């Protein structure tokens, strides 16, 4: 049976080591959850990028169609007024309108592509953060196991440093050394001749 001090040290060591392991497990679970959220957000960002691509293509096409419709309306009005479209100011207006329509479409396309790149960059960044978060969680869990092991070893060292026999048991049979260096166990009767190392006398016939 162990003494009260030893029992307190054992209980304190077990509680501290257990708390360290539980803390490491909680950190790992939290890291896994955060990484899962980051990966979900990365998937959403990539979906938004695809939607932005489709939206950009549609807006670019509408801009081009609108510009072409405006040029067609101008050409019809000009022709109805008897003005030649292939020369003069009418021709310049049509050329300028076509150039402006092309520039508008190019700007729309460029802006859409920039938004797509930003979303893809966000997704890549989130996936990288998720990977780092998972690694940090694993490192914390492993560190908690090492810390718990150190706590157990420290507690054992403290126990055996203050009490070589903390649980009341014998570490081994105590012996004492005779005059010739031979061990003599407690409770065992050894003849004096054996203890002195001299031969025993012979009995007479």
Q: N- to C-terminal separation?
A: 57 Å
Spatial shape = rod-shaped
Mean pLDDT, all residues: 78
Write down the oligomeric state.
single chain
Q: How do the SSEs run, as a string of H and E?
A: HHEEH
Q: Major sheet, described briefly?
A: 2 strands, antiparallel
What gyration radius follows from the Cα positions, in whole Å? 46 Å
Proportion of residues in β-strands = under 5%
Structural class per helix/strand content?
mainly alpha
Q: Uncertain spans, ≥5 residues at pLDDT below 50?
A: 169-188
Strand order of the largest sheet: 1-2
Total count of strands: 2
Helix-residue proportion: over 70%
In DSSP terms (H or I, runs of 4 or more residues), the helix count works out at: 3
Could you write a compact summary of the structure shown?
Helices cover 77% and strands 3% of the residues. The protein is mainly alpha-helical and 205 residues long.
């Amino acid at each position: 049976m162990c003494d009260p001090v030893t029992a307190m040290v054992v209980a304190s060591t077990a509680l501290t080591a257990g708390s360290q392991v539980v803390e490491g497990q909680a950190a790992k679970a939290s890291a896994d959850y955060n990484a899962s959220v980051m990966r979900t957000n990365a998937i959403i960002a990539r979906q938004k990028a695809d939607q932005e691509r489709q939206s950009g293509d549609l807006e670019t096409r509408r801009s081009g169609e609108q510009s072409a419709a405006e040029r067609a309306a101008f050409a019809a009005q000009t022709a109805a007024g008897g003005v030649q479209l292939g020369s003069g100011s009418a021709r310049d207006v049509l050329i300028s309108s076509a150039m402006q329509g092309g520039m508008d479409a190019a700007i729309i396309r460029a802006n859409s592509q920039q938004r797509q790149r930003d979303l893809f960059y966000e997704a890549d960044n989130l996936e990288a953060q998720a990977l780092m978060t998972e690694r940090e969680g694993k490192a914390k869990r492993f560190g908690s196991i090492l810390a718990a092991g150190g706590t157990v070893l420290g507690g054992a060292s403290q126990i055996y440093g203050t009490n070589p026999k903390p649980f009341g048991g014998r570490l081994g049979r105590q012996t004492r050394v005779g005059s010739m260096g031979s061990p003599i166990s407690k409770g065992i009767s050894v003849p004096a001749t054996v203890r002195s190392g001299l031969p025993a006398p012979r009995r007479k016939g």
